[in-house]
Write a structure and sequence with these properties.
Elements lengths: L9 E3 L14 E6 L5 E7 L2 H11 L7 E6 L6 H15 L18
Antiparallel strand pairs: 1-4, 2-3, 2-4
Amino acid sequence: MGIYGPGRPMKFDPFSGAGRKPPSRPGEYRMRSASGAITYIGETNSINRRMHEHMRTGKLAPGCTLEYQLADGRSSSRTRRIHERAKIEQHNPLLNRSGGGEGRIAKKR
């Protein structure tokens, strides 16, 4: 079994409040447009915080919904980023400009 449990992601509309509000826990999230297309995929240590950041910057706009899956206790930021990159490659979302992991400081060698 992977770092995410079985089943479909939970859904939340941050503008209407419909669905299950994401917690401040690690996991993967996806933003969907009103037409149903996945527009962005990301991973974070706090899904709730990241959702609010995307709303503030306008990336998560009215009409869009947030889907998320919580990571299990065995996951690390590294394993979540590997999963994120695979999902970005699979879905090719419009707003993902790279293969994931943007803004993260590279480890020293």
